[in-house]
Design brief:
Strand order of the largest sheet: 1-7-2-5
Strand content: 15-25%
Protein name: AraC-type DNA-binding protein
Number of helices: 10
CATH class of the largest domain: Mainly Beta
Structural class: alpha+beta
Distance between the termini: 38 Å
InterPro entries: AraC-bd, Homeodomain-like_sf, HTH-like, HTH_AraC, RmlC-like_jellyroll
Pfam family, one: AraC_binding
Oligomer: single chain
Organism: Anaerosporobacter mobilis DSM 15930
Keywords: DNA-binding, Transcription, Transcription regulation
């Protein structure tokens, strides 16, 4: 079954994608997603909550989290209007597999108390210092810092998944991916918790608890979130009206679209579009 996942385009000349994020809290909340790349997020200003395979943690100023390849994750913040600044580094899966062919049977574990945590953090700070450089060959310096992160992960943080311990997690991830795919394919339609439960072979009651554990949202909250993001994108990219964007993306009425947008971003869809223009 072809699961929906986030496709990553790397920065030119380096084995990673580096993104500096500086935006209001409402735009830091992601939908449930996964990708092959190893993700490192370093918090510069604010507090970011992340759920990885259903396990929640948070990072504050000067801290980072690491999400392994194919782990299902979602992020959120508490203050929708406050500004948050953080750096996202997505390490190339292909490059990592070139160094470690057994990467699919391995995970990387990094905790605050590990010396490896501080080593990786130093390289993140080094990378931060290069982002405003006008040097056309700065990618050579960035490549050096990134490969030091690769080396630290491979030599100090890599461990076997373990057949028993990871089998339950693998099943959990598989179900989450099925749910992501089903919602992403059907959010424009009238779908219910019962529909999704039938798709993955769960009872509705169990799915409700499972979904809340994985995402931190109820099913309907998450479905509205997905519809909202698609509707706002259509307003921005296709210049759709509020009404057309609402109905084209599964909202039962325009009021529901406006209410959901206000809850997420504190403004109406029309004002959101003006602010982003």
């Amino acid at each position: 079954m072809g699961y929906v996942y986030e496709k990553v385009t790397y920065n030119k000349n380096i084995p990673a994608k580096i993104l500096m994020q500086d935006k209001p809290g409402g735009r830091c909340n992601t939908t449930l997603h996964w990708h092959k790349e190893i993700e490192i997020v370093y918090m510069i200003h604010g507090c970011l909550h992340v759920k990885i395979n259903g396990h929640e943690s948070e990072i504050r100023d000067g801290e980072f989290y690491l999400c392994n390849s194919e782990e299902v994750h979602i992020t959120r913040v508490d203050d929708m209007k406050a500004n948050y600044t953080y750096l996202v580094i997505l390490l190339s899966y292909t490059e990592m597999k070139r160094f470690a062919p057994d990467i699919d049977d391995s995970i990387f574990k990094v905790t605050h108390s590990d010396s490896s945590y501080q080593k990786i953090k130093r390289q993140i700070l080094n990378l931060l210092g290069t982002l405003k450089s006008t040097d056309p060959y700065i990618f050579l310096v960035q490549d050096c810092y990134l490969r030091t992160i690769y080396h630290t992960l491979l030599s100090e943080c890599k461990t076997s998944k373990g057949a028993r311990a990871y089998s339950k997690t693998t099943v959990k991830i598989t179900h989450a991916k099925q749910i992501i795919e089903y919602i992403n394919q059907n959010y424009r339609e009238k779908i219910t918790l019962d529909d999704v439960a039938q798709e993955v072979g769960f009872s509705s009651q169990y799915l409700s608890k499972y979904f809340k554990n994985i995402t931190g949202y109820s099913f309907i909250q998450y479905l509205l979130k997905v519809r909202l993001e698609h509707a706002l994108k259509d307003m921005m990219n296709k210049n759709l009206s509020v009404t057309d964007a609402a109905y084209d993306n599964g909202f039962t009425n325009v009021k529901s679209f406006i209410t959901t947008c206000k809850k997420a971003y504190g403004v109406t869809p029309r004002h959101y579009k003006k602010k982003d223009a």
